[in-house]
Amino acid sequence: MRMGQRSRTAEYMALFRALETQRPIEQRLFADPLAASFLTRPLAAAAAVAGLPVLGGLVPLLIDRQIPGPRASAVARTKVLDDAVTAAVAGGIEQLIVLGAGYDSRAYRLPGTQRLRVFEVDHPDTQSVKRRVLEQVLGQLPAHVRFVPVDFDHDDLAAALDHAGLAHGRPSFVLWEGVASYLTSEAVDATVRWASQIAGEGSELALTYVHRGLIEGTVVPARCALGPFRRCRRGAVRVRLRARRTPGLPDRPGMAARRGPLHHRSPTRHGLSLRGVPAFYRIAMARC
Ligand SMILES: C[S@@+](CC[C@H](N)C(=O)[O-])C[C@H]1O[C@@H](n2cnc3c(N)ncnc32)[C@H](O)[C@@H]1O
After folding, report:
1. According to the model, what pLDDT value does residue 262 have?
2. In the chain, what are the domain boundaries?
3. pLDDT on residue 226
4. In which residue ranges of the chain is pLDDT below 70?
5. Is CATH 3.40.50.150 the right assignment for the domain spanning 70-287?
6. pLDDT value at position 275?
7. Which residue among 2, 5, 7 is best mutated to probe the pocket of ligand 1, counting the most ligand atoms within 8 A of its Cβ?
8. Distance 7 CA to ligand 1 centre (A)
9. pTM of the shown model
10. Ligand 1 pocket check: which of 123, 151, 183, 208 to mutate, most ligand atoms within 8 Å of Cβ?
């Protein structure tokens, strides 16, 4: 992420969700009506073309051909995490903490989230854009959401959330989607430790990550089920991830401070028969 600029990867996530939203109701995995509002040109143009009959279907195909994997993975994990948050809301959580929220719109579209205290934490450069767009589209910022600007590399996450009114020891859902890959291992550990400290009985943590073996080159790509990456893109992906100084996580992260079992979910084993989701995109979940 470049200083002073909104997150480009958050915008790609919004694009992938906007494209899924354009698909026929009986085929799409979810609808995120706000996603397209966060797009700038040329991604906004791509989303608009995707809404056209016949021609529109080519947009996801072209994206998948150019960068195989990320779109399908983004769609799959959005669905898995939508379901996890929805189940947690039904189970009685009181707080939803979205770390590195980007243009995540769960607080505005999932039923029941309006009854929660929601904390959206993100880098100030991206969060200010999100607030502006939400004000334009919704008329005003929803009262149940508190926006907490934090730079994970420099700021004190715990202090910022305490200042924003986070209640400790209450049933909460900590959602950390698409962010761990951009941070150091120490920052990831510290955040998981923080989550275990503030969590009350009935809390959950969900985080997505990239298998460390892909980045370090220690996982044989065939065994890693690279799927569409077989077309000689493995090296390029590895280099790109390294350049982002992503630590990745091992297959079974040894997160010392966790208070419940970590369940590793592959979206394809979650009742989703999605083609093109490489197995190195992972979701880890913990409950206490
Ligand atoms: C790939 S996006 C994911 C956004 C959102 N969770 C989603 O799934 O749509 C990564 C997010 O991490 C945030 N991020 C990256 N580095 C950060 C940092 N050092 N401090 C705060 N946020 C950061 C970006 O602002 C961005 O919103």
Report:
1. 37
2. 8-66, 70-287
3. 38
4. 1-3, 213-279
5. yes
6. 58
7. 7
8. 7
9. 0.84
10. 123
